[in-house]
Design goal:
With about 500 residues, the protein is an alpha+beta fold. It has three domains: about 80 residues, Single Sheet (S-adenosyl-L-methionine-dependent methyltransferases), CATH 2.20.130; about 250 residues, Rossmann fold (3-Layer(aba) Sandwich); about 110 residues, no CATH class. About 20% of the residues lie in helices and about 25% in strands. Strands 2, 4, 5, 7, 8, 9, 10, 11, 12, 13 and 14 form an eleven-stranded mixed beta sheet that branches. Helix 4 packs across helix 9 and helix 7 runs parallel beside helix 8. The chain is elongated and about 90 Å long.
Length: about 500
């Protein structure tokens, strides 16, 4: 090589030598996903993924209890262990991770882990729930713990984290000081599980106000055919499609869990109500696929009543007759949530009777949490209890003798100990519970598709309906209003879910 070439090559060679020498002393500290920390609850009885990052090729070891594992970080600096199942235990453990540095996670317990996800109704803290907070805020329960993300979240999503720099969070032990900040629904759900089964419970609170369901669905799921387009209103500064999934759900995966409770929908009234039935099942399937645990339990809440207390027996999807502008569409939104029940291991806690007419975020979260817990106690933990109110099964027309007073007989499932007239378990302060003497909330329609209030009687395990305004009924709706006032319950105090027998769709 000529002298000129050597001189030209020397700076480049020296540059690479500098990089190599610099890299010798550069070692990234071993780190873990934000979901791992002191006071965490690990899922019992399943293999446990534990993951983090380090320098590429770095040797990493982990120990907890009598388990110990070793691995090497890959070319991207990622490492992961899959630990053998641990039995439920209230005794605290220490998890130790060694690499170029040492991490120690203290007070780790093993029990059942649930995710409570959704928007404002799920996020409402215990301090703002009037029922139970006076006593529950004073209770310490070291075996009940919440993982909560930091609250430095901007509504337009600009201050949220990314995959490479996720927002942080921490595990918090239930105490009189910490409990008021917990999700009230999540707290009452977990409290009932703790009371009935006495095992440690960890709740991962994954909530964001003003977050339409599209923001909770991954971009991959949205792009699958048939693709779902966004109808989010830019002016309301709602988060972008997929943003809540990427910022709040993705960092949790594949942390081992028992299941998910879901209370969302306030941001999907109006134009989005009709597409909810397509999006929610897709979201559930996508989350289950990504977690890789199979069809874990996914329990939804049918939204509480909201809107005018008086009005037509059946509310149109449109705000006014002949007006193409949609109304709130809450009955259609509830129907969309119920559509997810076609998937395995799903359930629905009915809350349409727990609303306050003028409050989008009603304060009764104790009964919502209890009804969700009934689903888990029966379907996951095997208790022989009734976990649902009456669910529509079928109908048949009973012809009148003079052919002008036909009646409709409606049959139900989930009747529990029997059908009864009932009222909501709680009324807002200053409201006197009314005495229920008749069956309300039903409407009938004939071939003209015009709806009229129906009279009715409970007849054993069914309901008999009629209306002088509808001599030849062909269809039934129940609770088909934004603020339903139905009175059909089972003897266990659980309300009948709104339903319709027709297949008419809004234009």
């Amino acid at each position: 090589m000529c002298l000129k070439s050597l001189c030209a090559a020397a700076p480049l060679r020296e540059f690479f030598v500098f990089l190599w020498l610099s890299g010798v002393g550069l070692h990234a500290d071993v780190s873990m996903s934000p979901i791992f920390g002191d006071h965490m609850v690990l899922q019992q009885g399943v293999t446990l993924p534990v993951w983090g990052s380090a320098s590429p090729g770095e040797h990493v070891s982990l120990s907890i209890g009598n388990l110990s594992e070793e691995t090497v970080a890959d070319a991207f600096g990622k490492w992961r262990f899959t630990l053998r199942p641990l039995p439920s235990s209230p005794d605290p453990l220490v998890m130790v991770i060694n690499g170029n540095n040492r991490l120690e996670l203290h007070d780790v317990i093993v029990g059942d882990v649930w995710v409570c996800a959704g928007e404002a109704n799920m996020a409402l803290p215990l301090s703002d729930a009037p029922i139970g907070k006076e006593s529950d805020e004073k209770i310490a329960d070291e075996k009940l713990r919440f993982f909560q993300y930091d609250h430095s979240l901007d509504k337009d999503g600009t201050q949220l984290g990314t995959k490479s720099d996720p927002i942080k969070g921490r595990w918090i032990v239930c105490s009189p000081e910490s409990a008021p900040a917990f999700s009230a629904v999540g707290y009452f759900f977990a409290r009932d599980l703790r009371t009935s089964h006495h095992l440690p419970i960890g709740m991962i609170q994954c909530t964001r106000d003003d977050s339409p369901i599209l923001s909770w669905v991954s971009q991959r799921a949205l792009a699958k055919p048939p693709s779902i387009s966004s109808s989010l209103d830019r002016e309301t500064r709602n988060p972008q499609p997929g943003s809540c999934f990427e910022q709040l759900v993705h960092p949790l995966i594949p942390y081992a869990i028992t299941g998910i409770i879901w209370y969302q929908g306030e941001s999907d009234e109006g134009t989005a109500a009709l597409q909810y039935r397509r999006i929610l099942p897709r979201m559930i399937r996508d989350w289950r696929e990504r977690w890789g645990e199979g069809p874990f339990p996914f329990y939804c809440v049918s939204p509480a009543g909201f809107g005018d207390e008086e009005g037509l027996a059946v509310q149109s999807y449109h705000a006014q007759a002949g007006n193409p502008v949609p109304g709130r569409g809450l009955p259609w939104l509830r129907e969309g949530i119920a559509s997810a029940l076609s998937l395995p291991f799903t359930g629905m806690a009915e809350a349409s009777d727990l609303g306050v007419a003028g409050e989008r975020i009603p304060p009764d979260k104790r009964d919502v949490g209890r009804r969700l817990a009934l689903l888990a106690r029966h379907r996951v933990y095997g208790e022989e209890i009734v976990d649902s109110g009456p669910l529509y099964r079928g109908m048949k027309i009973e012809r009148g003798k003079d052919r002008d007073n036909d009646k409709v007989r409606v049959d139900f499932d989930s009747m529990g100990s029997g059908l009864v007239l009932g009222t909501p378990p709680w009324k807002s302060e200053g409201v006197t519970p009314s005495l229920v003497t008749s069956l309300k909330g039903f409407a009938l329609a004939g071939s003209d598709h015009k709806w009229f209030p129906a009279q009715g009687q409970i007849k054993g395990n069914s309901v008999l309906l009629w209306s002088d305004a509808v001599p030849h009924p062909i269809a039934v709706r129940y609770g088909w209003r934004g603020f339903p006032k139905g009175t059909l319950y089972n003897k266990e105090g659980l309300p009948a879910a709104p339903f319709r027998t027709d297949t008419d769709q809004p234009e």
